[in-house]
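INPUT
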Amino acid sequence: MGKVFIAGVGFTKIAEHWDRSLDGLLVEASLKAFDNAGLSEVDSIYVGNALAEALQDQMHLGAAVAEDLGLARVPAFRVEAAEASGAAALYAGFNEVASGRADAVLVVGGEKLSDGLPEEVSSGLMMGGRPYYESFIGADFYSLNALLYRIYCERYGCDNLASFPVMSHAHAEGVAHAQYPFKLSLEKVLSSPFIAEPLRRLEVSGIGDGAAAVILVGERLAGKLKSPLSQLQVASATDRLNPFDRESPLRFQSVGLAVSLVLRDARLSRNEIGFIELYDATSIMAALCLESSGFADPGKSGELAARGELDLGGSLPCNTFGGLKARGHPLGATALYQIAEAHLQVTDQAGRNQVDSAGAGLAIAIGGVGATAFASIVKRV
Amino acid sequence: MRVPSYWRNMPFIYRLSGWRCEHCGAFHPVKPLLCRRCRSRRFSAVELPRTGRLRAYTILRSPPKEFKDLAPYAIGLIELDDGTRVLGQLTDFRSEELRNGVRVEAVFRRIRVNGEEGLIEYGYKFRPVAREASPP
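OUTPUT
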């Protein structure tokens, strides 16, 4: 396999973009990534999106994006893996460049959740389970998280899980593209109402619109570009859809496998990872993500967050631009925000969010409640 | 759920009946070609026990659109008497009865009215077993 480099990144601000379409956001992020890379052409386009047929009554996003970019001839299609759709598109684009088939690929993810009502988004997320099982009884994403939270509390105690949103918000303060660029106190998190007890409103990521894009290039092209480059590795794994069908619901096998695979492919050990972009769709997901990836002992991740170890100046900085909770979580775009942010870190373009330990960063994206996981490493070159 | 899918899945959602792997014992609500745990291809039809214990629960306050009219409602993780774990809505409970280890039984209930066709969908829910003293 050949090396794969990130040559450019672009993204929109995450917000409720009432005056914008999904295609419009995808094209804006793509153009920014093209300009950032100093390129105007690619060999193929991969689009990550989770819910366009449910919220926009639209499919066939690949050809739509290619057309709007004036590239209506290159291969272009959408890749879907629930909330991890953006990472699935990245995986596909990575493979095409690594195989040598393409010199340059555009990977863009986007989601426009504000076109639907909150209950439609929740209903859409439920499509990540079996229609005759979780969906039939109304066991949505938040209720499954709440049940895991309850089991976690019984086994380990959960005094510190509410520190995850506090940590993420602290890092989003002043971040131009973040949906919620402000600090959040632990007291505020703990006094917010239950959305599905014991899960509280402020332990859950919000609903927003956004798109993010990266341009991937192979070695042949990388040498000719002037833009700052980083090197990418991507791996993926799966688990049973329903977390309560797994032997250990509190351990995401998919995350553990994907992280081990990507570390192997990047020839790095865990202590060479300088920062992590965690999947904090909920506080309990953040904890299970960090613990399943082998960077925290079972039951101990909340303590790391509470002690400040995950802060920008801590021993293992996480969510360096605010993560899903504070930067925002437009499903199909989320993983590509993570990758773009990691690229900014390892190319020293992260401004006041720059971490010192930015040799290599790990980004984790999760579809469903741990059924699909992608782990990516973005490395300084 | 679409109407044909509802019809296909009635045995499980009405009666908790499904298929058990003859090799490893894993339960499958829909007859599989292959066991999802051990990849065996031999199954026996089985009806799950209708009683068990509540292992975890939550109360949903902002449910998905299909269940909006039912909010708030409770979802439980139930360990049936044979050890099979199933998810289900909880019904007919007083709030103090919602705790880990409480004995529950499956009952047949209306689940929801589906879509523009207005099909009334029925299925199982769980309720506390009538007021017995129930140490976990």
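end of record. The two ends of chain B are 35 Å apart (CA to CA).
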